[in-house]
Amino acid sequence: MIRYVAGLDKGKGLYFLFVKSESKTAGGLPARPVLTSYYKSHHFRARPFDPYNVYTSPTAAVLCADAFQSMYSQMLCGLLDRLDVLRVGAVFASGLLRAIRFLQLHWKQLAHDIATGTLSSKITDSAIRDAVAQVLKPDPALSEFIASECSPGDWAGIITRIWPNTKYLDVIVTGAMAQYIPTLEYYSGGLPMACTMYASSECYFGLNLRPMCKPSEVSYTIMPNMAYFEFLPLDSAAANADAPPQLADLAGVEVGKEYELVITTYAGLYRYRVGDILLVTGFHNAAPQFRFVRRKNVLLSIESDKTDEAELQRAVERASELLRPWGASVVEYTSQADTRVIPGHYVIYWELLVKGGEGGGWPGKEVFEACCLEMEEAMNAVYRQSRTADGSIGPLEIRVVRGGTFEELMDYAIARGASINQYKVPRCVTFPPIIELLDSRVVETHISPACPKWSPRPN
């Protein structure tokens, strides 16, 4: 980064970092995300001073599992150090937008704490209170400034208005996170967005050697010392479904082709299919460079959640059972990840068939709300934790469309060149005209009335 941005050792980074609650496997082994493991490790807790990596957030705030207390204290400390902040970031773009939404909702209390030099009674974690007490002093001028920026309700460029020395945003905006780019541009006043690395819980893959390039141009250079990397060509996998896969190594990939990433790691994973689809864009010396295209088979994603077609199908089937007493059934469905509000949430479009006769009738509001919750109960543990413990995903929404809507959807696709013989209803839609068509046919909208069950303990 210092090759592109000067003076990063002269200020601080406002990074919103969080741990997630741990769970245990049925055999009693601890299970937690890789970043939670890192933040709780000695490497993070006792890290030596590095002028290029000074955070405004106290370590105690990062390690607090209560999402509200962690966010509140990190935002407060970021406001106190606002003139020292040179970069603002989070792991995912959605996390940074959640922080901005938090500021919109709680700026009055934050300004009050800064004016009085006292921490809100809602913060009960003793380690956080001790850490914040070292930096929180009465500052009426700063409090008035925050109020003047937030009270009008104009949030355009709020990041650079409150943190005027910010040089760039440090967030992942590739893959599913690309949907957040326009919103980040709105809040930041067009600051550059740096995607610095490509990694997962399984392995550290590569670096972006041009971190200040446009998000659409991001390519990652694979670091061959991190693991043994192989690549499954997508075209050969599809053409020879019954034949053994023919894998390419790092030296055998071709520019312009897409591959599924396969890794063998020092930790013991052997030819593990990560599920990431990558496009070869070039080489740095002899090391190939890849653009992240998408997650394989993932339909919906708001943050770290990943819902595939089979899981969505099971959730719809479970929820549709609640319609049976009314003689109703789901004829067709599709979905979208709606990120126009913060936090984002799943939207499921249903077209219903309601039979006449005994037991027939249109289900009431309570039935549809129960269907929303039933779908959420059917989702995976990562989704339910994000909904229940973290608040990073909003309530699931069912939008009931009028009869014949999915026929109109097919007609639209055929008019654009799709084959009538090969057409299948898309289980997730992202194309704005299709979303507009669906929304224009909505007759009822229902929101999940409660959070799904989630526990850090195994079922």
TrEMBL record:
Highest taxon listed in the record's lineage: Eukaryota
Gene Ontology cellular component annotations, sorted alphabetically: cytoplasm
GH3 C-terminal domain: residues covered: 311-431
GO molecular function, one term: acid-amino acid ligase activity
InterPro entries linked: GH3, GH3_C, GH3_M
Chain ranges of the GH3 middle domain: 220-295
Pfam family for this entry, one: GH3_M
Keywords tagged on the record: Ligase
Matches recorded under PANTHER family: GH3 DOMAIN-CONTAINING PROTEIN (PTHR31901), INDOLE-3-ACETIC ACID-AMIDO SYNTHETASE GH3.1-RELATED (PTHR31901:SF96)
Family note: Belongs to the IAA-amido conjugating enzyme family.
Name of the protein this chain belongs to: Uncharacterized protein
